[in-house]
């Protein structure tokens, strides 16, 4: 716990959380609250992806499957049972259990593969889920999807806002603890040089499995919140765009920082919101996804360590300057 | 006049400082041998010359021309033939295809060179249509040398050709290299002192990424102390 | 019997279309270890631009030529500006080619709108042949003929030309090829453009065959091509050809007998191959053909 507060710029974190806590009192515009709720949900999803790509160096192109599993589990349960909190819990547990199972099986079968094979395989499996959701009409209503009702606590935008805010904070702390645990250190070693980690005697497959199950669980949780926030679901949750969202958010925010993933989620969701509003006035912005695509490539080519890396570089420079000044003073 | 001249080469592999200022020169028409214990940096020296692991500082001159900033294929086209440590055989190509590939971007009279190589290594002619991967170790080494000779023009870099060969094969290899010396300059990396000392004119000894000794091969044979210290022979 | 033959013809023609996509993927991977996730984008661009040129000019040959040229143009841009800058870094390569895919399929929607568009069959390829009461659609035979001719052409290129020799050698040992004075970067550009041309051609041929084209098609076919390339063995052209036929025919039969399971079937094939022979059917490293 001490490590946690030591490393995170804690004051900033607290300030932001405080601001977010007070925000609904300052501004109760419905659309802003919805936007922020959306950002929180995707922040959880992006953090889960960061565990894979940023902390362990696993490239998965099928992360949407866990998001979708969580979303569908919750949605289907709400559709079948009464809309109360217990139902939500049941849905959540089912989604998480399924995600654990799926991520464990996929990982066991394919995590030993080279990165490009793994990326390809996860992409293909996620598409399999998409097809499954489309074909299993009796339960999923296919591509059209279905609406369902949720408990009043979730219906109220303000209370749901607080629930998602709390969720982000809790998931952030849990994942942070996870990455700073001894397991997390091994993961970092694997991402830097898997062979070396292996040579040091770590069973890398075992650790990679832990990482992907953890990521799967967190993604499933975010998917469940997502379904609740829309009170509607269709096969889009399994689309490749969802995976791309996670990629974009983590890349733009900065890999391997968790906080970067949150910032990335904020930036992307805000941009998306803004661009789709622009699209109403200027139809050319209807295809705003392509703008995000270009942004993603620019970040990959030009700022491979994302926003977090950029800030780190700036502060380092500042520190160095300060140091230099001090040294100069000493000499003088 | 020296054909190849290395000046103060420094090369890093990943973060490791492998070559720490290597200077040497190879005289035209000679066989120059580079000795050194395992991990001394011999292979890295050849790879730096070829541009696979370009040096960060220092220069390589070939025919008095600085080639240290060129990329590998251009270095090769200047006329340097290369036999890598483990032969670098294209196992799926036949002998014929391999040697044709060597001719593709080669300077000089490729036909004549090809003919001479087949004369020198008749086995290659015999297994002309065989997949290189199926050749014996010795035959692979011949193929690798023939490929480098046909491709090169004036200089051959050969990395430990005697590795894994039977004494008879080593004997044969020595003969061939001596014959080839008539037509090309050779920079030879070797651990086999007995062999190299018989065919070499000049030597360098490398240790920990630096040249620690150089001179005429004849003198080295007399110099028991150096032999023992760096090459582990009495 | 009739059903059987029809399914076989369907399967083989679909398989050969997948092969056009897979051939480029496998060669690019073999030579440069780049798994190009944007390859399906070239395919779908081929499909749309081919369909568009055909409606505009009413010439199928022009449509195909145009699609190939556009595919190669896009391929050139992709190789130059996306793949080369991250060459040698596997993770970034994967990430950037997926971004390329996003841009290619989104830009389709900019030019042709978000909805599927209908494509007509060229008149001279309409209709069907009849043998003993068995009806075979002309266009499928056309696709099979073109596919086989292209396979033959690729085989000849790799086997009997100097650049083919260089490519095969490059797949086995890139460094050594450079040491023989061959510019591997140039070789890569060549192979990339070749792959792009084949992918675009595959798309252009598919358009009239399926009658309708949509942006997401690129990803769907790319996934099939990935499966094929892995089943066949990365870097092996013959392996890809064989696996394309297997996937195509199995898909056709599955679509007829158990339509809901056809993608699952391919995944099953893939998993079996990965577990039993991770190098793929013909993927002994060292052979590109
Ligand atoms: N890719 C690499 N990354 C880091 N270090 C390397 C790499 N390749 C080689 N080295 C190190 O560089 C040093 C020199 O290696 P090099 O292969 O040049 O030695 P050598 O003299 O050819 O040895 P040998 O006689 O065993 O072939 C060694 O210490 C080796 O561990
Ligand atoms: Mg060596």
Describe the protein's architecture and organization.
The complex is a heterotrimer of chains A (332), B (234) and C (289). Chain A is mainly alpha-helical and 332 residues long. Chain A has a single domain (2-306), classed as Orthogonal Bundle (ABC transporter involved in vitamin B12 uptake, BtuC), CATH 1.10.3470. Chain A contains 16 helices and two strands. Chain A is globular, with a radius of gyration of 21 Å. Chain B has a domain at 1-79 and 155-161 and 184-234: P-loop containing nucleotide triphosphate hydrolases (Rossmann fold, 3-Layer(aba) Sandwich), CATH 3.40.50.300. Chain B has helices spanning 42-50, 72-77, 95-104, 110-120, 122-126, 137-151, 167-181, 193-199, 217-222, 224-231, and strands at residues 2-13, 16-27, 31-36, 57-62, 65-66, 80-83, 155-159, 185-189, 202-207, 210-216. In chain B, the strands form two sheets. Chain B has a six-stranded mixed β-sheet, with helices on both faces. In chain B, a hairpin with a 2-residue loop joins strand 9 (202-207) and strand 10. The model of chain B has no long low-confidence stretch (mean pLDDT 92). Chain C has 289 residues and is mainly alpha-helical. Chain C has one domain (2-222). In chain C, the strands form two sheets. In chain C, strands 1-4 form a two-stranded antiparallel sheet. In chain C, strands 2-3 form a two-stranded antiparallel ribbon. Classes of the chains: A mainly alpha (332), B alpha/beta (234), C mainly alpha (289). Chains in contact: A-C, B-C. Chains A and C meet through helix 6, helix 13 and helix 15 of A and helix 4, helix 9 and helix 11 of C. The structure holds adenosine-5'-triphosphate and magnesium ion (MG). Magnesium ion binds at residues 42-43, 85, 159 of chain B.
């Amino acid at each position: 716990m001490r490590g946690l507060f030591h490393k995170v710029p804690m004051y900033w974190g607290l300030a932001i959380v405080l601001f977010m806590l007070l925000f609904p009192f300052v501004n109760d515009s419905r659309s802003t609250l919805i936007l922020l709720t959306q950002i929180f949900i995707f922040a959880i999803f992006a953090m889960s992806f960061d565990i894979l790509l940023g902390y362990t160096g696993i490239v998965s192109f099928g992360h949407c499957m866990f998001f979708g599993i969580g979303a569908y589990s919750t949605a289907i349960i709400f559709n079948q049972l009464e809309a109360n909190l217990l139902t939500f819990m049941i849905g959540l547990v089912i989604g998480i259990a399924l995600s654990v199972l799926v991520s464990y099986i996929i990982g066991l079968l394919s995590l030993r593969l080279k990165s490009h094979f793994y990326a390809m395989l996860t992409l293909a499996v996620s598409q399999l889920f998409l097809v499954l959701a489309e074909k299993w009409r009796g339960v999923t209503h296919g591509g059209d999807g279905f609406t369902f009702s949720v408990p009043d606590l979730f219906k109220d935008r303000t209370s749901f806002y607080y629930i998602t805010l709390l969720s982000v904070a809790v998931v952030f702390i849990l994942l942070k603890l996870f990455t700073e645990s001894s397991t997390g250190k091994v993961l970092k070693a694997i991402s830097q040089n898997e062979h070396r980690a292996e040579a040091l005697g770590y069973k890398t497959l075992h650790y990679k499995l832990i990482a992907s199950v953890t990521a799967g669980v967190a993604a499933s949780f975010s998917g469940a919140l997502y379904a609740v926030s829309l009170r509607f679901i269709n096969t889009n949750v399994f689309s490749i765009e969802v995976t791309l969202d996670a990629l974009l958010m983590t890349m733009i925010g900065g890999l391997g920082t968790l906080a970067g993933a949150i910032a990335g989620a904020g930036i992307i969701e805000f941009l998306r919101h803004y661009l789709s509003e622009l699209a109403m006035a200027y139809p050319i912005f209807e295809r705003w996804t392509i703008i995000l695509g270009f942004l993603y490539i620019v970040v990959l080519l030009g700022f491979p360590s994302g926003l977090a890396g950029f800030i780190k570089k700036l502060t380092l420079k500042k520190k160095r300057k300060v140091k230099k000044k001090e040294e100069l003073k000493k000499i003088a | 006049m020296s054909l190849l001249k290395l000046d103060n080469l420094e090369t890093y592999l990943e973060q490791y400082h492998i070559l720490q200022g290597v200077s040497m020169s190879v005289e035209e028409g000679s066989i120059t041998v580079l000795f050194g214990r395992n991990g001394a940096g011999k292979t890295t020296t050849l790879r730096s010359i070829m541009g696979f692991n370009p040096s960060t500082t220092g220069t390589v001159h070939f025919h008095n021309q600085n080639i240290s900033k060129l990329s590998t294929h251009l270095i090769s086209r200047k006329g340097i033939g290369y036999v890598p440590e483990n032969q670098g055989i294209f196992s799926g190509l036949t002998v014929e295809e391999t040697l044709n590939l060597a001719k593709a971007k080669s300077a000089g009279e490729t036909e004549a060179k090809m003919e001479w190589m087949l004369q020198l290594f008749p086995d290659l002619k015999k297994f002309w249509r065989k997949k290189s991967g199926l050749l014996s170790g010795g035959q692979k080494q011949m193929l690798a040398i023939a490929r480098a000779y046909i491709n090169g023009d004036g200089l051959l870099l050969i990395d430990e050709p005697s590795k894994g060969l039977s004494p008879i094969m080593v004997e044969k290899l020595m003969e061939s290299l001596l014959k080839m010396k008539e037509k090309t300059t050779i920079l030879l990396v070797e651990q086999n002192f007995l062999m190299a000392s018989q065919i070499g004119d000049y030597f360098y000894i490398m240790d920990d990424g630096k040249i620690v000794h150089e001179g005429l091969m004849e003198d080295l044979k007399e110099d028991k102390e150096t032999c023992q210290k760096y090459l582990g022979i009495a | 019997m009739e059903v059987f033959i029809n399914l076989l013809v369907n399967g083989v023609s679909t398989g050969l279309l997948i092969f056009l996509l897979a051939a480029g993927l496998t060669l690019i991977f073999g030579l440069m270890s780049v798994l190009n996730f944007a390859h399906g984008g070239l395919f779908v661009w081929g499909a749309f631009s081919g369909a568009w040129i055909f409606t505009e000019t009413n010439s199928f040959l022009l449509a195909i030529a145009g699609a190939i040229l556009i595919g190669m143009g896009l391929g050139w841009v992709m190789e130059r500006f996306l793949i080369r800058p991250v060459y040698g870094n596997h993770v970034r390569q994967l990430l950037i080619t997926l971004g390329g895919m996003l841009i290619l399929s989104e830009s389709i929607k900019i030019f042709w709108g978000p909805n599927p568009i209908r494509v007509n069959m060229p008149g001279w390829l309409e209709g069907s042949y009849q043998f003993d009461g068995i009806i075979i659609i002309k266009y499928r035979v056309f696709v099979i003929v073109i596919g086989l001719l292209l396979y033959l052409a690729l085989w000849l290129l790799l086997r009997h030309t100097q650049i083919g020799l260089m490519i095969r050698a490059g797949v086995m040992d890139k460094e050594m090829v450079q040491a023989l004075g061959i510019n591997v970067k140039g070789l890569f550009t060549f192979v990339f453009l070749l792959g792009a041309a084949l992918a675009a051609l595959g798309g252009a041929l598919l358009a009239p065959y399926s009658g309708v084209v949509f942006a997401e098609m690129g990803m769907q076919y790319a996934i099939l091509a990935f499966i094929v390339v892995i089943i066949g063995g990365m870097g092996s052209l013959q392996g890809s050809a064989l696996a394309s036929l297997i996937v195509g025919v199995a898909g056709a039969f599955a679509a007829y007998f158990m339509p809901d399971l056809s993608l699952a079937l391919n995944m099953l094939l893939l998993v079996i191959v990965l577990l039993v022979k991770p190098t793929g059917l013909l993927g002994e490293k060292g052979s590109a053909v």
